[in-house]
Design brief:
The protein is of the alpha+beta class. It is about 30% helix and about 30% strand. It folds into 2 domains: about 110 residues, Gcn5-related N-acetyltransferase (GNAT) (Aminopeptidase), CATH 3.40.630.30; about 150 residues, 3-Layer(aba) Sandwich (Aminopeptidase), CATH 3.40.630.
């Protein structure tokens, strides 16, 4: 992040809203001036728009946009101005979607001819969770595990365009971020082969997040996902001493939503994806 004022602005919004205003993929795009829009008033950052590209299975790229806006400016006219300016960030003719955590942005996007296509929810729970007698045996991620982890990730998220695009370069960048190292990256194995993982993250505010969890298709349906979730939260509570666990989940994944509710998690926020109607 080149401008420290942007970091201060985003931290302020996270404190106000209770969740990060931008995803990691968008933060990674800050290194390119062509992918970020900044609006200032009186030399202070009041709005940010940023885009990131995601490689699709067919070899094409999809571009997603996120925006962050000062609470005092969250009204229709300014939201529309920010959205329209941000839509100029991806290449002309690109496949585009916009993510929104604000009802004021929802209205602006509808006026611009977009429709809501997906919702993901932010869930949280107090840690530690109730211990289980049959705790899953896991080991920590090592550098030599990258290829297998990426294989599991591609198979598990084949229909998820953002998650499926994870490659070795992005994996390395994410691993290097504060709170994202191998100490919180748990692997599950069967017959010496990685069949699932739970990648956790420790945030600067003291929250612990299950950043990504994946189970190979051949290992699904046997409760491994639940065991990995519990193992991840146990790691955040026991090893890192954290008292709050969080994660994001696609609301169309009814099985995952039911799982998270069953272990005592509650929904705290929603992020909505919009695409322009043809």
């Amino acid at each position: 992040m080149t401008d420290p004022r942007i970091e201060v602005f985003l931290q302020k919004l996270a404190e106000i809203d209770g969740s990060a205003p931008l995803s990691d993929a968008k933060i990674d795009s800050f290194g390119s001036e062509e992918r970020i829009l900044v609006i200032e008033e009186s030399d202070e950052v009041v709005a940010v728009g940023v885009t990131a590209s995601h490689l699709q299975p067919d070899g094409t790229f999809h571009w997603s946009i996120e925006t962050a806006l000062d609470p005092g400016l969250r009204f229709a006219a300014f939201e529309k101005r920010l959205a329209e300016s941000s839509l100029a960030l991806p290449p002309v003719g690109a496949s585009i979607s916009v993510w929104s955590q604000r009802t004021s942005l929802d209205s602006a996007l509808l006026d611009l001819g977009f429709a809501r296509v997906r919702e993901v929810a932010y869930f949280e729970a107090a840690l530690p969770l109730h211990p289980t007698r049959d705790a899953l045996e896991t080991r920590l991620f090592g550098a030599s595990d990258a290829a297998e982890v990426l294989r599991v990730n591609r198979a598990a998220f084949a229909s998820h365009r953002e998650a499926a695009s994870l490659d070795e370069a992005e994996l390395g960048r994410l691993m290097a971020q504060e709170g994202m190292g191998s100490d919180g990256f748990l692997l599950a194995q069967e017959d010496g082969r990685i069949v699932g993982f739970c990648w956790t993250r420790v945030h600067a505010n003291g929250d612990g997040e299950i950043f990504r969890i994946a189970v190979s298709p051949e290992a699904q349906g046997r409760g491994l996902g639940r065991s990995l979730v519990l193992a991840g939260f146990a790691r955040l509570a026991g090893h890192f001493g954290l008292s709050k666990g969080t994660l994001w989940v696609d609301l169309s994944n009814e099985g995952a939503v039911a799982l998270y509710r069953s272990i005592g998690m509650t929904q705290a926020a929603i992020n909505r994806e919009f695409e322009r109607l043809v």
